[in-house]
Amino acid sequence: MDAMEREADEGDDLLSELLKPLRLTGVFDSRWHVNAPWAIEGDAEQSCAVLHYIVEGGCWISGEGQTPLELNAGDLAVFPTGIAHRLSDRPDRQGVPLRAVLPERQPGTSGEIRIEGKGPESRLLCAGLHYDASAATGLYKALPWALVLDGPQVAAEPLLRDTLRLLAAPDRPVGPGDRLITLRAFEMALVLALRPLLRELAHNPAALPVLRHPGISRAMVIIATRFAEPWTIESLAREVGMSRSAFTAAFRSLVGDAPARHLTGRRMQEAARLLGETTVAQSAVPQRVGYQSSVGFHLAFRKWFGTTPGEYRTAAGVA
């Protein structure tokens, strides 16, 4: 494998690491039928990505201190960290709070917004995609406020396009298991949308500089894929050819976390998956995630999640 192939593989691994938080825990979706003039102010959402798909017409999205972006039919906008933003028919129009028109937005439910103006009509599919806050890495939180796929880019991803159209359909099938199916369909749509967007970011160092820092980028891949090895900050720094002090400073600056915390977070993420989704013996989990001491693992897990490994497994219903 030559250097270019290794770089591409590591880039793919890092993009995969970015997508790891996206195991959704709940979805609220809504269909908007709006005629100009209209504007709606969305609140900031905690541990929640927000998705807007333009079915018909168009709109503007605006955020504090951000350049407004125009969306047209077929475009998809994703707000990875649920930052507060406005949707409107014009970028300068002041809006009503979303909570005034959709006061209840509980995960697992759906809603509808209708605004009967005299201007052009737009139809949108909007969703709040809740994920486990403990799994969101500093790198994920550092993503740009909004990521946009235009209509041709969506069309170039047939599975994404067809999933969005199905979710946006007014006669979307309803029946047994519908809530789980909807959750997983939105989860797939989000991952399918972020994949090409993140690949674009890899070629735009101003947007996500860590992807262009060879040492820190490689360390991120190591943490994502080799977390079970007995790493220390010193050994990580040596592995990527940096001094401990330079490595720690650059990692914190580019990722937003200290390297030790990021490594712990990845180990805890895998531990939670093993305890909550598999029947791997609880006694085997510490070594599987890089802990030589069961006591050390127990203390780290409790500090991270606020519960013991045994209580976590019981709550997940894994025998």
TrEMBL record:
Q: Does the keyword Transcription regulation apply?
A: yes
* Record's keyword terms, sorted: DNA-binding, Transcription, Transcription regulation
What Gene3D superfamilies does the record tag this protein with?
Answer: Homeodomain-like, Jelly Rolls
What are the HTH araC/xylS-type domain coordinates in residue numbering?
Answer: 217-315
Source superkingdom: Bacteria
Q: Which InterPro entries match?
A: AraC_lig, AraC_XylS_family_regulators, Homeodomain-like_sf, HTH_AraC, RmlC-like_jellyroll
Q: Which PROSITE patterns match?
A: HTH_ARAC_FAMILY_2 (PS01124)
Note one Pfam family from the annotation: HTH_18
SMART domains for the chain? HTH_ARAC (SM00342)
Q: What is this protein called?
A: AraC family transcriptional regulator
Q: Which organism is it from?
A: Streptomyces chryseus
